Amino acid sequence: MQASSPTFLLVDGYNIIGAWPTLNQLACRSLMELARLRLVESLANYVAFRGYRATVVYDAYTQPTPARQERSPSGIEILYTSYGETADSCIERLCAQLQRDGCRVRVATSDRVQQLVIGGYNAEWISAEQLWDEVQQAQQQIRRIQPKRLSSKRGIDAYLDAETLSRLNHWRLSGQDPLC
Fold this sequence. Notes:
Largest sheet: 6 strands, mixed
Strand content: 15-25%
Shape: elongated
CATH architecture of the largest domain: 3-Layer(aba) Sandwich
CATH class of the largest domain: Alpha Beta
Number of helices: 7
Order of helices and strands: EHHHEEEHEHEHH
Distance between the termini: 54 Å
Helix content: 40-55%
Number of domains: 2
């Protein structure tokens, strides 16, 4: 494996939703779309912080739908398997492909059978609980390194430097179109 090869995180979406209490509560209240969205949102900063590429796989095994692929605004790939395909088989296929390409692969699932299978592809296995812990640790590290805002201002002035604010105020008060 090359030192510069990326690390891919493959996530068994419904397995993680079922294991993380906050997401499971949403799913139990028939808010599965929201649970899927929150999972991807939870992973966004984590994968960016770690420098991973991530794919969340959702099982559409019993749904008479074609496979579907999306990309979240944060760059996380979201796959919905086609009718008759399990998330496990999709993850296995992706593991084999990524390993052939020389990539490091981590698979997040608490499915014990899947754990054994992905080991055959030299992929790393992490449980749903371990992924949760890693996501929380990354969030804490991100909070520590983010610059603290000295101002408690709200609105655009909290995000702009003094010179830019001055120029905007000048344009606003002059009545001129700033683009002219």
